[in-house]
Amino acid sequence: MIKAYFDNAATTRMRAEALEAFAKASETFANPSSLHSEGYAASSLLEASRKALSAVIGAGKKDQVIFTGCGTESNNMMLFGAAYAKPSNPGKRIIISDSEHPSVYLAAEELGRRGFDIKTVRTAGGRTDPDELSLLVDKNTLLVSIMTVNNESGALYDIKTLCDVVKAKNPRTLFHTDATQALMKTKISVRALGVDAMTVSAHKIGGPKGVGALYLSETAVRSRSVSPLLYGGGQEGGLRSGTENTAGAAAFAAAASAGYATLDADISRVSELRGYITSGLSGIGVRVNEPASCVPHIISATLPGIRSEVMLHHLSARGVYVSSGSACSSHHPGISRPMQAFGLSEREADCTVRISLCPENTVEEADLLLEGVADGVKNLIKMYK
Are residues 107 and 74 in the same domain? Predict the structure, then answer.
C-alpha cells in the first residue's frame, strides 16, 4: 500500500543528515562532564552542536541555548523557572494566549492554582490583538508566553510586535515564545524578534525524539530570571542538571543546519502543495480555516458533518495519515480548545482535521489524501448528523 504521511506537525521522519550525525556522535560515548580526553571530546561535540543551533535561530555569543528532553520540558522550565526565580515573583501576573500548547496552558493553570495571576489574550481568527495584550500588562507582570505558530491552525502570530508592546509597557517583563511549530516553517531570529526566551524541538524538524532546547537571552541569563527545575550536577549552565544527550543534540543541530540551508526552497515547495490541497478540499465541500497569517505547513480543515476521528480512521485504512488535533492532547481527548479559540463552534471543532505537510510530501500523496477525503465525505456523512 502506498502511504501518504500528513501528520508532520506531530512528528517528522528523521532526515539523513540527522541520522548520520546521530550515528557518528554515538561513537563519542563518554560523559561530557568527565575530566579526561574522551569526556573533553564529548563536551566539544556538545558545544559544537549548541553553537550550530544558536546560529540557526540567530542567538548571540552571550545568549544561552540549553538542551532539554523535549519542547514540553522547555516550556515547563520557562514557566515554572521564571515564576520561582525570585522571592518577589510568587503571586505576580503571567499572560498566555488562549490557544497555547498544553505544555504552556496546563503549566499556567497549575501556577494559577498556586496563587499566580494568570491572564489570557484571545487569538480569534488566528490573530492576537496587540492593544488587548497591552491592557493586560501591568507592573506586576513577570512573564508573557505566546507561541509563534499555532500547532492546530497554523496561525503565525506577530511575535515582534507583541514583544515590543509588552516591553514598552513593562521592560522587566520576560517574553517567551514556543517556536516548536515555527522552526523550519518560517524564518526565525531571536534577536530580531526581541524575545527573552524561545522553545524549539528536534523531532518537529527531522531530528530525533527526546531532545529539545530553550533559548535564553543574555539579559535573561545575566539577571537570573529563570531558575532550574532539575537539581544535580549543574549541567547546562546550572539550569538543567543531568547527563546531556550528546548524540541527540548533534542530530538536532544537523537537522536544523540542513533545514536552514534549504529553507526558502522548502517553504516555496510546501506553499505550492498547500495551494493544491486546499483547492482540492474546497472542491469537495471541505472548509479550510484560513488564519489571518499562517505558515503553509499546517492546514486546518472542517468536514461537512463528519467527526474528525471518524475521518482519521477512514484515511488511515487507506494509508493516509492526518491528525484530529494536537498529538500531545490525544491522551486527554476532548473538543479542541485552540480551534474554539480560533472561532469554531464545538461541533465544527469536533469535525476538524489537521493536515500537516513537509517538503518531502508529493502531489501524488496529495491526490491520495484528496481521494480519501472525497470518499469519506460521500460515504461517512450519514454516520454523524
Answer: yes
